[in-house]
Design a protein that fits this description.
single chain; about 325 residues; alpha/beta; 7-stranded mixed β-sheet
């Protein structure tokens, strides 16, 4: 099979297409012929061994000190079942999330059958590959961590990426009043996805106070975010430094305001089914900003780490 392989940490140019033996399903895993896979900000961070301040060492401990232990990155994908499994026939259209096992940036992969679902007719293969990464993160922070509800005033900083596009739609579905912060070029997109107001971050900080401030871009440290929070408000630092995470744990409440940090842990079967249910109810649709041939996956990595992509980046395999 062909696979995108990372043999050393570095820039997008370290990604190479190689021919490798196809994986053999073992221990109850099932084989998938991959059709499309997302190249996410998470993939780019792992490839570069770069994380928010204080977290790069932990990233290397988790994924490999000198090089990635799993050289084939990629977590979310769509494809075809190689043989009957999980109550589905051979050849069934499926999509899923490999989690920390990665391996989706290849023509073939094996995966725990609990981490795949049948693709509904409402999704093409490219859109299916784009649904989970942003949807899982946004649902975890907004629903599980913040308990968002009708009338909540929400500010999303970094609203036009894959997590932001999902957060806008989930917040709209739950009745929030949303202000989106992103480049002016993306204001039409974020309004279409549910934002009531849009602000260009190049014009300085937005004016006002919000019940929830969701910092996806990672550019709102507590001292700046505090002024944006209404009394009793909550900061959700989706992208946070180690210091910010520790501060949130040690002083979760300051002057009646809260900080809820931490990484997304809700990425298993139940969380995947919730995201699919949101889609089936018309609350969430994938936003694909770029579809790139597998052979040009280096370009996909460069776009994923640029900080200026719209929605998801998907490679077709």
């Amino acid at each position: 099979m062909k696979a995108a392989v990372v043999r050393a940490y570095g820039g997008p140019d370290v990604v190479r297409i190689e021919t490798l033996p196809a994986p053999v399903p073992r221990n109850g895993r099932v084989g998938i012929s991959v059709v499309a896979a997302a190249v996410t900000r998470g993939d780019a961070r792992i490839r570069a061994a770069e994380a928010p301040a204080g977290l790069s060492a932990g990233l290397r401990l988790a994924f490999g000190l000198r090089r990635p232990r799993q050289p084939i990155l990629g977590m979310v994908f769509s494809g075809r079942l190689a043989e009957a499994a999980a109550g589905l026939p051979a050849g069934a259209r499926v999509f899923g999330n490999t989690g920390m096992a990665m391996g989706a940036h290849a023509e073939e992969l094996t995966v725990d059958p609990g981490r795949i679902l049948p693709i509904p007719d409402s999704l093409c293969d490219v859109d299916a590959a784009a649904l989970f990464f942003g949807g899982l993160t946004a649902a975890d922070f907004l629903i599980d961590k913040a308990g968002i509800g009708p009338g909540a005033r929400l500010l999303i900083n970094g609203a036009s990426g894959e997590v932001g596009c999902a957060a806008l739609q989930i917040a709209r579905f739950h009745g929030a009043e949303i202000t989106a912060v992103c480049r002016a070029e993306n204001h039409d997109l974020v309004r279409d996805l549910g934002a009531h107001h849009a602000h260009d971050y190049r014009d300085g900080a937005p004016k006002g106070q919000w019940d929830l401030v969701m910092d996806i871009a990672g550019t709102l440290p507590w001292k700046q975010a505090e002024a944006l929070l209404a009394p009793g408000g909550t900061l959700l630092p989706v992208t946070a430094s180690l210091g910010a995470m520790i501060g949130a744990m040690l002083r979760a409440n300051r002057k009646g305001q809260r900080r809820i940090s931490g990484t997304t842990s809700a990425d298993g079967p139940a969380a995947m089914r919730r995201v699919l249910d949101l889609h089936s109810r018309g609350a969430l649709r994938p936003v694909v900003g770029a579809t790139i041939p597998f052979e040009s996956i280096e370009t996909a990595h460069a776009l994923a780490e640029s900080g200026h992509k719209r929605g998801s980046v998907v490679v077709t395999i």
